[in-house]
Amino acid sequence: MSTDGQMSNNNGHVGVRAIVVDDDADVREIFIELLQMNDIQVIASGINGKEAVELYKIHHPDFVFLDYLMPEYDGLYAIEKIREFDPHGKIILVSGSHFERNALGETVKAIIKKPIEMGDVIKAINTIILPNANLK
Amino acid sequence: MTLQSKESGTNFSAREMAYDELKELGIAENELIEKEKHLTMLTNESFSKMKEVSKINRDLQNRIKSLQELSASLNRKNEELKMANQELERKTIQNDHISLELQEKLERVTQKEKELSLQRDFLARRLDETTQDLVKAEKFAIIGELSARLAHDLRNPLSVIKNTMDIMSVKQNMKIEERLQYVTRFKRAVQRMSHQIDDVLDFVKKTEMVLHVASLRSIIESALGVIIVPTNVRISLPQNDVIITCDSRKLEAVFSNIILNAIQATNDNGEVKIRVSDIDSNVQIEFEDTGPGIPADIVPKIFDPLFTTKQTGTGLGLSICKNIVEQHGGTITVKSPPTIFTINLPKNMLQNKTNNYQTFVTGKTTYLRESRQ
Questions:
Q1: Across B12-21, B48-57, B107-116, B182-191, which has the greatest mean pLDDT?
Q2: Contact: A117, B162; criterion CB under 8 Å
Q3: Is the complex ipTM more than 0.90?
Q4: What is the pLDDT of residues B269-315, one digit of tens each?
Q5: Interface with chain B: mutation pick from A27, A37, A47, A68, highest number of B CBs within 10 Å
Q6: Which end of chain A is more exposed for a tag (fewer CB within 10 A), N or C?
Q7: Domains of chain A
Q8: Bond preceding residue B338 cis, omega within 30 of 0
Q9: Contact A37 B167 (CB under 8 A)
């Protein structure tokens, strides 16, 4: 179960600041709750790619959890815009579709598939922030 | 006389005798002359006869000559005729030959024709098969895309259910209100999933048609009954009514889908006009909205399955509408701007559709099932 992963990795994530962007309110709210239960501070949330870019500029978070298919401004829009002003920005794509990571560029550090498995989220964060971890 | 005188003395009787003899000689002489005359006459006669005969002879010769000539010319003509006959025979043989050749050629042509017709049949079958393969391939492509879309759409509510479960299993001692909040999320997620699945199934399987005699106006009215019309949108209903044989429940779904689209097109501010026209054995229903219109590049794709301009849509709504209208033996078209959806339906689809359907009649209701091919 994902709960095991959550408990054992709790200490590593204290102080991690994140933004959650998803057009589906239920998905967004429950995901935020789950992240916060795992000591990940969610400083803002949005409903499309445009809001993702605006919130990123304001908060400069450690991570952006970004949905892909969203009305008007999708995830790809946010990925490209954020890369323009912060090539080292860390985006974790959260999507119901299948993606090839290479096609999305270096700013996308990980891809989490829906339904969201919290263990995968924790693992992805560890791989990105722990110094000895494989950065790929 | 001299002799008579010298001898007178001697022989009187001799003189008399001579006289008699002379007399006899004279007679004989006369007789001779007579005979001569007669002979001459005879000679003349025979001469003239000979002349006549020779003339006849000449004539005959002439005739023979001309006959010979005639015969010769006849012979010549006969010869000519013989030659002509031979020529004819030769030509007849030649003609027979040609006729035979023609017959052979005709047979060959007939054979070729048969071969060609066989080839044509074969090609027609191949074309049919290829078309069917293409249709199948297209169907598979649609199914592929459909399942990809369905999978994607199901993952959001699935994620909600899973994560809510995650939270609930950590928070063991929840207050009832908090628990209710999670239960509401479960319910919503489940509802969304079943709605999405229903939509896909509606599209994928053609269900039985349940036919009634119904008033078009009443179907339009009940279609409006399931729609929340925004206050700034005016719906103008047709004044007239037409009675048709149809699956009213299915048509109601078609009408509400199109009316809902029309309302959304006006951006919740405008008018939706519904018109009904009675045209011979058909009825035409038009839905016109005051929205900005559909971009020209989108119009041809609007009835395609999975095509949508909305983020939350399955892209199946209008495609399902088209299926239902076509199940009724009707057509649906669109033109824009102003956007007008036009549906043409036969008033009594049983009249011309029964060949392709199996019918079951119970009381006033007729069930139609599309025959398998």
A1: B107-116
A2: yes
A3: no
A4: 899 999 999 988 899 999 999 988 888 888 888 888 767 766 556 67
A5: A27
A6: C
A7: 2-128 (3.40.50.2300)
A8: yes
A9: yes
Is some CB atom of chain B closer than 8 A to the CB atom of A93?
no
Q: Which amino acid is at A40?
A: I
Domain B207-370: give its CATH code. 3.30.565.10
Q: Bridge partners of B331?
A: B344
Which of B153, B155, B185 has the CB atom closest to A30's CB atom? B185
Residue A70 sits at the chain B interface (C-beta within 8 Å): yes
Q: Which of A9-13, A51-55, B142-146, B220-224 has the highest mean pLDDT?
A: A51-55
Mutate to test the interface with A, among B159, B171, B185, B188 (most CBs of A within 10 A): B159
**pLDDT value of residue B372:** 46
Overall pTM > 0.80: no
pLDDT band at B355 (very low <50, low <70, confident <90, very high): low
β pairing state of A63-66 and A16-21:
parallel
Partner-chain contact A118 B158, CB within 8 Å: no
Identity of the residue in B163, B185, B188 whose CB atom sits nearest the CB atom of A34:
B163
CB within 8 Å: B153 and A96: yes
* Residue range(s) of every CATH 3.30.565.10 domain in chain B: 207-370
Taking CA–CA distances from B151, the nearest residue in chain A reads A96
Which tens digit of pLDDT belongs to each residue from A35-50? Answer: 999 889 999 999 999 9
pLDDT of residue B8: 55
Query: What is the spatial distance between Cα B326 and Cα B344, in angstroms, rounded to a whole number?
Result: 10
The distance in angstroms from the start CA to the end CA of chain B is 166
Q: A10 to chain B nearest CA, in Å? A: 14
Q: Name residues whose C-beta falls within 8 Å of residue B367's C-beta, 6 or more positions apart in sequence.
A: B208, B209, B210, B211, B359, B360, B361
